[in-house]
Amino acid sequence: MGPVAAHGRKPPSSPAKRTGAKLTTLPLIALIFYDVSGGPFGLEDSVRAGAGPLLPLLGLLVFPVLWSLPEALITAELASSLPSNAGYVLWVSSAFGPFLAFQEGLWKWASGAMDNALYPVLFLDYLRPSLPFFSSGAGRFPTLWALTAALTCLNYRGLHVVGISAVLLTVFSLSPFIALVVLSLPRLRPRRWLAADLKRVDLRGYFNSMLWNLNYWDKASTLAGEVEDPARAFPKAVFGALVLVVASYLLPLLAGTGAMEGMKSGEWGDGYFAEVGMAIGGAWLKWWIQAAAAMSNMGLFEAEMSGDSFQLLGMSELGMLPAFFSSRSKYGTPTISILFSATGVIFLSWMSFQEIIEFLNFLYALGMLLEFAAFIQLRIKRPDLHRPYKVPVGTFGAVVICIPPTALLILVMCLASARTFIVSGIVMLIGFVLYPAIQFMKDKQWVRFIDPSVPLESCFGTIALQQQEVPDEASLSLLPEFSSIKEEPPGDEPDLERVLKSK
C-alpha cells in the first residue's frame, strides 16, 4: 500500500458508524441490473449506428459471451474473495500495488461520473417529444441540475433504500416491454431482422453503443462491504443480473424491429422506443414507455452514484484518499463522496450523449485492462487466496477467458477520436500527478488519512472486513496479504504496515 500516515494508530475522532440494513441478494441483482442496463433505453443508437437491426441483434448474441460473461465471472470471483468497498481498486492494489490501484480508481471514478451524467439527459430526451420545453437550454439545464440534486438526496438517505427502490423500479421499467413484446407477436416479420446497410455502418458508434449497454458489471463490487454475506450473494446476483440484462435488451429489440413496417434505421435514437410503442400499441403504450424510461434513468443514476461514492469511501479506507471521504451520514452513506460525485455529474451535463459515451468507454477500457491483468496476477501470485466462488478454470484458462474482452477493449480504444485520446490523456496525467501529491500531503500530515494498519471496522464501522460463515482458512481479509495475520493471537493488533512492506 505504500507509505502510511504518521498519525499513530488512533482512528479518526468521532467515527461515523455504519447504520441500516445490509443489501441482500435480490436488491443486489437490481443494483447490478441498473449498473449495467436498466432496460433497453439507450439501445436505440445501436440500430442507427448499425444501419439496421441485424448488427445490434448479432451483437446482443455475441457481446454477452465475449464481454459480459467474462467480466461477470471475474467480478463474482474477486468481489466474493475480497469484499471491500474499494472493489476493483483493491483487486489492482493486491496484484500490482498502490500506484496502479490509484490510477484504476481515478479512471473508473471519472468513467462512472461521465456515465451518470447521461441519465438526467436521457430522462429529458424521453420526455422531449411530449414536453418540448425540455429540449431548450432555458428549461433543460436547470431541470438537469434540479434532477441531479433530487436524486443525490435520495442516494444520501441510505443504500438499503436505494436497493429496495431499484427492485421496484426494475419491475416498473420492464413492464411496458412485456406488453410491447406480446402485442408485437402477430406483427412480427423475421425478415426485417436481417436488414442492414453495411455501407452506412458507423463502426465507432456501434461498438461504443454496444459496449456501453453491456459494461459496468464490476461496479457493484464497490458495494461489497454493504452486502449481507457477499461470498454467497455476489455470484448469485451477478449471474441473475446477466440473464435479466440480456433478456431486457434482446426481446424488446426483436419486437420493435420485427413489428415495425417501413422502419428507417436513421430514425432510431434516444427515446425511440416510445415511438415504437406508439406504432404497436397506441398512445397509452407510448406514455407508459416514457414513464418507465424516466423511472429507469432514476434507477441508473442511483446505482451508479452508489458505486462511485462508495468507491471513494473504500479508497479512503485504504489510505489512498483523505479520511473525510470515509465520513458517513446517519444513514450510513458516504456524505462527502456523494457530494463529490454529484459535482462531477453536474460539471459534465453540458456534453453530448455520444461524446460522453466515447469518453467514458475509453477510461472504462483502461480500467478493465488493469482488472483483467489483476485477475490473472492474483491467480499466479495468490493461489492460496480463499475464493468462495472460483471461475472453474486454471491459470491458463484464466488467461484464455480474458483474451476476447481484452481484444474488444483494444478495438474500442483504437476507434476512439483524437478528442477522446486528448481528454483521456489529461485524466491519466492528472492521476500521475495527483498520486505523489497525495503522498506528499500524507507525509506532511496536512490532511488526515486513515492508517490502513488500523483495523477499519474500528474507524468507521466498516464494511471491508466481513464476518462470514466460511471455513477458518477461508477468512476473507482486506488484502490478500492479510491472510497471513489470521494465526496471530487475538489480543495482538495486526501490524499491517509490516505486512504491506513485505510485498
UniProtKB/TrEMBL annotation:
Bilayer topology: Multi-pass membrane protein
Superkingdom as given in the UniProt entry: Eukaryota
Keywords assigned by UniProt, alphabetized: Cell membrane, Membrane, Symport, Transmembrane, Transmembrane helix, Transport
TM regions (residue ranges): 161-185, 237-260, 334-353, 359-379, 391-412, 418-438
Family: Belongs to the amino acid-polyamine-organocation (APC) superfamily. Polyamine:cation symporter (PHS) (TC 2.A.3.12) family.
Molecular function in Gene Ontology: polyamine transmembrane transporter activity; symporter activity
Location of this chain's protein in the cell: Cell membrane
Lineage: Eukaryota, Viridiplantae, Streptophyta, Embryophyta, Tracheophyta
InterPro entries to which the protein is assigned, alphabetical: AA/rel_permease1 (IPR002293), RMV1-like (IPR044566)
Gene Ontology CC terms, in alphabetical order: plasma membrane
Primary localisation category: membrane
Keyword Cytoplasm annotated: no
Region entry Disordered, spans: 484-503
Protein name stated in the entry: Polyamine transporter PUT1
